[in-house]
Amino acid sequence: MDNLPSERIKELGLQFPPAPKPLGVYKPLLVVDNFLYISGQGPINLDGTLMVGRAGDDLNEDEAKLAARQVGLTMLSTIQTHFGSLDKIKRVVKVLGMVNSTPNFGRQPYVVNGFSELMADVFGKENGIGVRSAVGMMLPDNIPVEVEAMFQLH
Fold first, then answer.
1. Which residue, among 104, 105, 91, 89, has the nearest Cα to 145 in the 3D structure?
2. In 3-state terms, what secondary structure has residue 43?
3. CB atoms within 10 A of CB 5
4. For residues 43, 75, 150 and 139, what is the CA-based torsion angle, rounded to 10 degrees?
């Protein structure tokens, strides 16, 4: 899998939602030295609407995992829109996955795999998997998953 991320995206037939506009006082992304930091992203549908729901309440673990995958597509859209080519990314370094879940829902790592598996598909297993945390919490606008990430650049 030595293909460029842009080629893998075409091969996988991935469609990106529109990049969200910041809803607060922050930058969608920031480059510092050789690293690209991405602010927390939620799952945006192809029509630009937010996915909503809470794992353990109105979403099961598989539906929440799909929402985490959609966060990945949203993040890739944000990078492409505000930074440029995804081919400038060398690897995923760190991921913080936050799952909107009930207190008794304990499958946050499984849910965040939806994001991580997509990154492995796009950047390859070696470069698409970095260090990660997956936690449960309350999220704004009742979105099911929010992810922030850090990437190393070429």
1. 105
2. coil
3. 22
4. -20
